Amino acid sequence: MTEDSSETKEYTLEADSELRFEIEHKDAKVLVSLVSGFAELFGTELVKKKKYQFCMGAKVAIFTYHGCVLQVIGKMDVCYVSKETPMIQYVNCHAALEQFRVEAEEQDKRGPVALVVGPLDVGKSTLCRILLNYAVRAGRRPLYADIDVGQGAIAIPGNVGTILIERPASVEDGFPKTAPLVYHVGHKSPSGNSVLYNSVVSKMAEVTLKSLDANKRTKSSGIIVNTCGWVKGSGYAHLLHAARAYGACAIFVLDQERLYNELLRDVPENVQVVLLPKSGGVVERSKEVRHEARDQRIKEYFYGNVRAPFYPFSFEVKFADLRLYKIGAPPLPDSCMPIGMKAEDNQKKVVAVTPSQALLHHILALSFAESIDDDVIGTNVAGFCCVTEVDMERQAVMLLSPQPRPLPPNALLLWSEMQFMDNHA
Ligand SMILES: Nc1ncnc2c1ncn2[C@@H]1O[C@H](COP(=O)(O)OP(=O)(O)OP(=O)(O)O)[C@@H](O)[C@H]1O
């Protein structure tokens, strides 16, 4: 059913059904409120009578276990009620994780680490959000690890990150991204540097698993890990690596029997591999839409959104003061490597970058490492800037940064292939 008018409409939903809608128009604004009953958006309960605002790009589903009436004001591109949803299977996964958590709590051991895997556009991020929301609603404090570098939902694309989830996601803005633990990869796909990607995932897993022990409630709550949609060949090898690094006890496979069977074959028997259907509501995204989403995520990092705008700074840094490095030297065959080194080591090499016009629009990550003698790959990053101008004559770059000048003393910056055109008016 297509919704053209901008008038007010009421939808009565039966138990176990959901209202799905998409907004594609640039200036469209849709207000949704719960009139009666109970409803939730990807696991976050709606507050009765509160008006939730959705804008361009919104692709959402409001689900009800008990039945409800929703009021919708505004123009949507697609809007329909569906009774076919996999929510019962998803809530069963949550119940299974809860059993692990109860046991972990009783025996003071680590709670479950669950990986959510599947090809592109099957609703992996959405399932993670649902499981995390259900966990906090049950009084847990889980960690959310996002190792999907393409989306970089916790920091920005080109990075992996982990956050502690203490309250349900906001209906409009998702989980707050305060105090994330972020590691730099610098590529939008793990294929950009597989060796680096695996090292970074191992490091983040090691650090977060250790950190679980510091807080009793988080320890028994465990970790939900969101993964990349690249599930064939090396992409599959990355998934196996992540499952091992995190010591996953459960892997939820969305929508692909082939992947499910491969995992059943390749992971230890004590790992529960569960095949789940994808929701019919999940919207497929073209390459262009993905590119736009990446751009939007970076823009939000610097400028915030309408509800919480940020005001970034712009300042000049002389080439001479720029300590800029890149991880990974061009590949060389083993025979050309110095004695004792493998070609693989080259992919983890920290190489100085000479500033040039080619830096324009690139994202630079500010590492917590102080020198290249530190473990740069295994050190998390503090934040990001973007090169908005390169002046070869004055030998300087202009940086867009969430923090005012100057860069911290001895700031070590890491080059990323991610680019952002700063045309914010
Ligand atoms: N039941 C649903 N009804 C409507 N839209 C949905 C539903 N579930 C998910 N979506 C939307 O579909 C889109 C894709 O979902 P999601 O990001 O979870 O997929 P993904 O598998 O993580 O994608 P990627 O391949 O990029 O990792 C999102 O915009 C999400 O809001």
TrEMBL record:
Residues covered by the Clp1 P-loop domain: 118-304
Pfam families: Clp1, CLP1_N, CLP1_P
Residue numbers binding ATP: 18, 59, 121-126
Domain Clp1 N-terminal: 12-104
One MF annotation (Gene Ontology) recorded for this entry: polynucleotide 5'-hydroxyl-kinase activity
Keywords: ATP-binding, mRNA processing, Nucleotide-binding, Nucleus
InterPro entries per record: Clp1, Clp1/Grc3, Clp1_C, Clp1_C_sf, Clp1_N, Clp1_N_sf, CLP1_P, P-loop_NTPase
Tagged with keyword Nucleus: yes
Gene3D superfamilies in the record: Clp1, DNA binding domain (2.60.120.1030), P-loop containing nucleotide triphosphate hydrolases (3.40.50.300), Pre-mRNA cleavage complex subunit Clp1, C-terminal domain (2.40.30.330)
Family to which the UniProt record says this protein belongs: Belongs to the Clp1 family. Clp1 subfamily.
Name this protein carries in UniProt: Protein CLP1 homolog
Organism from which the protein derives: Drosophila lebanonensis
Gene: LOC115633945
